[in-house]
Each structure stands twice: as structure tokens, then as C-alpha cells.
Amino acid sequence: MNTNSRPAIFITGASAGIGRATAELFAARGWFVGLYDVADGAAEALRQQLGPDRCVAGRLDASDATAFAEALRTFFDAAGGRLDLLFNCAGILSTGDFDSIPVERHQRIVDVNLRGVLNGCHAALPYLRRTPGARVVNMASASALHGVPGFASYSSTKFAVRGLTEALGIEWARYGIRVMDVSPPFVATPMVTSIAAPPASVNRLGIRLQAADVALAVWRAAHWRLWPRVHWYPGWQTKGFAALNKLSPSWLNRFTTRLISGY
Q1: Widest pairwise Cα distance in the chain
Q2: Are the C-beta atoms of residues 64 and 112 closer than 8 Å to each other?
Q3: What is d(CA 222, CA 220) in angstroms, rounded to the nearest whole number?
Q4: I want to staple 32 with a disulfide (CB 3.0 to 4.6 A). Which of 8, 114, 184, 249 is the partner?
Q5: Annotated catalytic, 175?
Q6: Hey, what domains does the chain have and what are their CATH numbers?
């Protein structure tokens, strides 16, 4: 039980990669952390590592709206009646030509990466409204700046997450809730490093960020007090791409994407 009314964060995809790094960072800095992941037992194992008094854990498939709503109810009670930050981090990836990936896998990517974020935001709103200064951080990607070949369905879900973030950021401002996203390039997480045959873009851009770098961006977003800032770009690569995407003509952005992707 969060008896000390510590600020509270709910994290999906919490047992590995960026979700785990974020959980470790926030727990170490005194937050009460909700650890939720689809992997059986993984979230509970992390809870024992971080300290049972600092966390609550559970199994959650983010694409299941009913399960998401129940998990948030449980967390809100355990956190002492507050939800300061919802971090929609859970995501999956498949790479390769669009037609080489089974349609069922494309659909699953949409279910987790987009439907999961929709489910989380929808179910969390009543709890966010009851927590002064509450925030949402959604996991987007540098692939949301321009559609990336070899990552077609993944990239499209991140475009959608970016759009949802912008829309809810305006809608929920009347409740005092800030909605943001983080858009890193390739990060050294199991999802990326386990790719059997990395696309050309991975080799050409390299993997220059660690999960802890993205976790730190989430921490900064959670504490940002200045002008409304919607999109966060960890690492110099994504900051550069974002700037060029705004300044360059669309044909040049398309040419650059083809060049990097090897298509």
C-alpha cells in the first residue's frame, strides 16, 4: 500500500527494456510503481527485486481492455488513490518486407502498439482526473517521423500513437492532464537486439541509445514545468531527424528514408 502518498506511475511492458529501466529509475527516486507485463511472472520477479513495498505487479495484455481497466483499478487502490503518470510502454516489432510478414502478426502489432495505448488512456482517465498534475507518456518512435520500409506496420502504429497523443493533449488540457510521447531511434533492448536479420537502417544508423536514456526522458517529461511540450526526442539522432522533417521538403524526407532503409 502506498501509505506515504508517494507519486505513482503505472507502466506497461515493465519487465524488460525501456519499461524495466523506467521502473528501476522511478522506484529508486521514491515513486510507487505499477509493474505490468504480458510475460508470466516477470513483473512479480521485478517487484521482488525493487522491493515489494515500492511496487505492485501483475500480468497484463495491454490489448485486452477489460484486463487493463481491472489492472488500473487495482493499482489505483494500492497507490493510495492516485495515478500521477501512465506510461504506455508495451510494444512489439516485426521487421521485413510487408508481404513477408503474416497478416496475423501485423494485426497483433496493431493490437499491442495502438490498441494497448487506446485502452490504457481510456481506462486511466478517471484516475488521472482525480490526481492533480497527472500526466500520460506514450511510447512512440523515430519511425513516426516518416513511414519506414521494413517496419511498415510498426511505423504506422507509432504514427497513430503520435496523433492520439497530440489530440488528447489538447482535449485533456481542460482537466490539467498533460499528454506526451517519447520517440527514440533504435535502442539497445531485447526487442531490437534480438532481430535475427537486422534491416539496413539498423546497421546504417546504429544502436546508440540504452534503455536508461529513454527512461531518463520519461522522468524529465514527468517533471517538466515549463511550456507544454508534447514530443520528446531522446538522443541527437532523433532530434536531428525531427528538425529536418519539419524543415525539409517531403521529397527529400522520402529520399533520405529510402537511402537509410536501403530500398
Answers
A1: 56
A2: no
A3: 5
A4: 8
A5: no
A6: 8-261 (3.40.50.720)
How far is it, in rounded angstroms, from Cα 112 to Cα 89?
Answer: 10
Contact 235, 209 (CB under 8 A): yes
d(CA 246, CA 164): 19
Tens digit of pLDDT per residue, the chain (263 long)?
A: 454 579 999 999 999 999 999 999 999 999 999 999 999 899 999 999 999 999 999 999 999 999 999 999 999 999 999 999 999 999 999 999 999 999 999 999 999 999 999 999 999 999 999 999 999 999 999 999 989 999 999 999 999 999 999 999 999 999 999 999 999 988 989 888 778 777 788 878 878 889 999 999 999 999 999 888 999 999 888 888 888 788 889 888 888 888 888 88
**Among 127, 154, 175, 233, the one annotated catalytic:** 154
Closest residue by Cα to residue 182 from 242, 260, 115, 101: 242
